[in-house]
Description:
Shape: globular
Distance between the termini: 18 Å
CATH topology of the largest domain: Creatine Kinase, Chain A, domain 2
Radius of gyration: 21 Å
Structural class: alpha+beta
CATH architecture of the largest domain: 2-Layer Sandwich
Helix content: 40-55%
Number of helices: 13
Strand order of the largest sheet: 4-5-6-7-1-10-12-11
CATH class of the largest domain: Alpha Beta
Number of domains: 2
Largest sheet: 8 strands, antiparallel
Amino acid sequence: MDFVKQIRSSLSRWMEGSGPYFDVVISSRVRLARNLADYPFPSRISSETMEEIVDKVEAAVKGASVDPRVGALEVIRLNRLSPVERQVMVEKHLISPQFAGAGGVGRAVALGNEEVVSVMINEEDHLRIQVFLPGMQLHEAWNIADAVDDFFEQKLVYAFDEVLGYLTCCPTNVGTGLRASVMLHLPGLALTGQTEEVLGVLSRVGLAVRGLFGEGTQSLGNIFQVSNQITLGRTEKEIISNLSSVTKKLIEQERSAREALIQGEGKLKLEDRVFRSYGILSNARTMSSKEALSLLSDLKLGIDLKIIKDIEPRIFNELIVLIQPGFIQHIIGRELEAEERDRIRADIIREVMARKEQ
């Protein structure tokens, strides 16, 4: 089966493996929580009322270009998607795991060109406007999110208070309703035993650290998501600037840790680790997602440090999504047992890597 051909038509722009500081920062995301006036929050309304809200949003975007960088938004109702298709959206970070598992009636997602914009309709809030870009592009993501927000505000009436700001279901989002986050690859800190110490101080500066798929998930493949915790009392620019400043410090610490790993006798040990992972990924016939993420983390570190020179950096960004259970089952077209997924996962990795090397 030509996995690469199928995969290429399913990639989001944030997986490009490009952008500023792409060796450490996988992607940047800005999310705005918005609610419509005169409607209770989604948790307090019927499925019929939720459908009414989806209709309003669909009417607002129909035939309109939201922004030149985004294009038109296509509204996709979750009840028209299979569980596997919803899981693929989770694995691409377009919708939350909670949203995918809540059932499809009265819930939808609106997607823009290259899936730079994803708007969850009737998740925790009526609208969750999300913008994803590759690398360290928080300011650019905020500019796009602001434009999409302006578009909706011209079409819909938001729930807004002059003192509190935008009203949201969760009190921690009241104010700007802004959550900004970066997805980081931190193998240097992990291998030098600094992860817990470095990331442990972030809560003191109003930031949260989460796993690969956000809140309630664990870190796999040395991937962490860092986001702001506070929205009330701060402007959007202050939130973005604070996260950008902290992220740049994390980048410096990660790069310093990587530099320490390739000095002296440690260089041979690191090269051996990288090439062993490369060899397993290139030849294994079965592989779990957890093992694959660990090996891919080593591979990306080797690519970034120029230990391996014949593979594009984007392979890591692509494969951390493509090896997930939902995506594998989507490619095959049916539900699979874990053992069969492990076999096909190894097939996908071998084929993708073989094409990258040509």
